[in-house]
Queue: 2 jobs
Job 1
Amino acid sequence: MLGPKETGNFMAANGKTDIDHERLKKVVEGIAVEIRKATEWGKAADYIPELAKIDTKQFGIAVLTRDGQTIAGGDADTQFSIQSISKVFALAIALKAKGEKVWKRVGKEPSGDPYNSIIDLERHKGFPRNPFINPGALVVVDMLLEDRERDDLPDTVRDFIGDMIGDHAIGIDEDVVKSEHISGFTNKALANLAKSFGNLNHEVDDVMHVYVRQCAVALSCRQLAAAGRFLMLDREDIDDKVSKADAERARRINAVMLTCGQYDGSGDFAYRVGLPAKSGVGGGILAVVPNTATVAVWSPGLDDNGNSLLGTLALERLSQRMDWSIFGAVRRV
Ligand code: GLU
């Protein structure tokens, strides 16, 4: 049997999981080198014309550990639009503001249909299957707009992320915003359909305005890992930014990320990586190792399900080599 030093985690005397940072650094840097040699990089999302222009041969990774250290590799400081990863932050804000009432307007079940499926929304009479498919995210944005004036549409998600990373100079990629306004016919159709079923209270244009801006928030892997820190914290690790209640809600959010976070590839992702995660069509993935770390990877080429091809491979290798699957540490049995 291997001793604790050979595993990614080891249990400290107080029962908390600690991390061998030297080993983690070697693993992260090794993965960055391996991924650079890839021959297959996947295909950038092309239904948003601005994303189609991105050079797919890029890869970044950043791991933020519970004690606040960041270990990074590759293009970890290049910014990309977080796209659907923004839906995790929007859900966190909505749950904090509205509590369990959120689930009266959106479900928490995997959809089994594409994330922008109109037929799925129609089948469920305007009740989206989960907050991470587009209609679900549009309904969550609608909730965030409650009590706001029409002309005071906030960059709520950007502000939340700014608070989390302690830097409010968060950019929004305005070219991506324009591109999505022009190409977002399906999203507008979804918002209209939800409205026709009485599940959207604000004007479609207002909801779209906020949704498109939150998707176009531009972060690097290093920033994204920091923004997701609240998702890994144990109740004992709370601080002025993350309360006990936030940490408790984070468990629920992680559950939805595990079951619904990777479009129609959520089952395959759970099988290969074994971590709660959310991907976006910009090629980013935010993954959570509860009580231990948050990981952000980015590579703009996508697989057939719309998940970053090499980002997923990198997470699979990281999870295996660090024994980070939430389903158990294989090398210790
Ligand atoms: N802004 C994208 C859309 O609405 C987000 C999709 C995604 O990342 O899944 O289509």
Job 2
Amino acid sequence: MKIRTRFAPSPTGFMHVGNLRTALYEYLTARHANGTFVLRIEDTDQERYVEGAIDVIYDTLKLAGISHDEGPDIGGDFGPYVQSERLSIYKPYAEKLIEEGKAYRCFCSKERLAKVREDAIANGQDSIGYDRHCRDLSQVEIEKNLNYGIPYVIRQKLPLSGETTYHDCVYGDITIPNEDLDDQILLKVDGFPTYNFANVIDDHTMGITHIVRGCEYLSSTPKYNALYEAFGWDIPTYIHLPLIMGKSIDEEGKEVVSKLSKRHGSTGFFDLVNEGYLPQAIINYIALLGWAPSDNKEILTMEELINDFNIESISKSPSVFDYDKLLWMNGEYIKAMSSDEFLSYAKVYYDKFAISSCKYDLLEELLKPRITKFTEIEEKLEFLAKYEEFELSLFEHKKSKSTLETSKQMINEFLPILESIDESNWNRDYLGSKFVDFATEKEIKNALIMWPIRIAAAGVAVTPGGCSEVLVLLGREESLRRINLAKSRLEI
Ligand code: GLU
């Protein structure tokens, strides 16, 4: 049997990382088995529809590297792939169930249903579902209602007693008492299918063999199965995924874990991308939210994910979305980048500081190990554009044995040496050798000269790279200008 999976998002305008994980696992399940991955848009609930949301879905999948084999944009043999374009498909299926006595027309008015509900609540009943008033109407009553043109919905007759068990690959056997199952509506008064009905008809008619979705659907699955059974169709393989949780600190300062939401951090794919997380790192990270390869390797390409993915290793315990871990992973992806790729992300920041291309190699070397997101570059290079009157106490540094007094002396003595170096020698190696020669001659530690020069040039304590690198990045003229300024400030 060829595996067919589908991602069936509702276009609500936002791709939560949980939905993206579902899409990824469907994709991996299909690709691992050389199967087919289908994209279907579930837009029967027009009230939830958000303009432009379908584009968010396409853009997300594309950027995430999750490619579908069939879908609204590329077609396929099982289309249309948008539910609102399939409306004529559903009704005949519901009518077939009526003919077979497995479904019935329910003529109850909204008012009656509201009253049933109210009474049930007043009586403290647990189950406040439909009271099955129309389930056993006589043929005469049905004809009469139809002749009067009374609007009706179509409901499925579900078993009144016993239990239903189904198997889920992650959660095992799930059993629920049948009395918990309401006689579900299949077609609404306006002839539109309900969400559950359309979902099952679509999955079956699209030949879907494996259904991957969030565990919030575990409890409605018996209803889906009741439909498969009523039609005599094979029940698909179910793979329900555990919740994704987030960590936060409560008022008493205790760490609490709850369903991942905005208060934990960004939860939307594009929000994370805009914050500087790389799509590949996000995908790699969310692949591990509930699944791990047998060798517990953490950095995996899409290729490796496809090879290693297996349904059996999906865990049912909820996983915690750890932003620090994602950040670490992002840094690992940056470190592994080729120079061209690194530059393609970093260039926008280089351009902001009007950095000439001859410094790109040095910057890559300095920044690659120091950043976990490209957005950090801006802050790291800020000293190039900004030189403010900094606190002179920055010159004091215990480890380098640097004090205001030594700084003043070092700058006074070294500035003429720096000034004698011409543009063509203004490079890391040459500058570095000058510092070392000076320190050797004076019999001092390198740090005693490098610390004050770097502070004087950068005006900040933390810089990407040491003294010579800072001087190279600033260029000869700007370095000398700044060190002269610092010199006069120290002399006052
Ligand atoms: N349209 C549903 C959602 O976006 C998917 C349900 C399913 O996969 O069966 O949550």
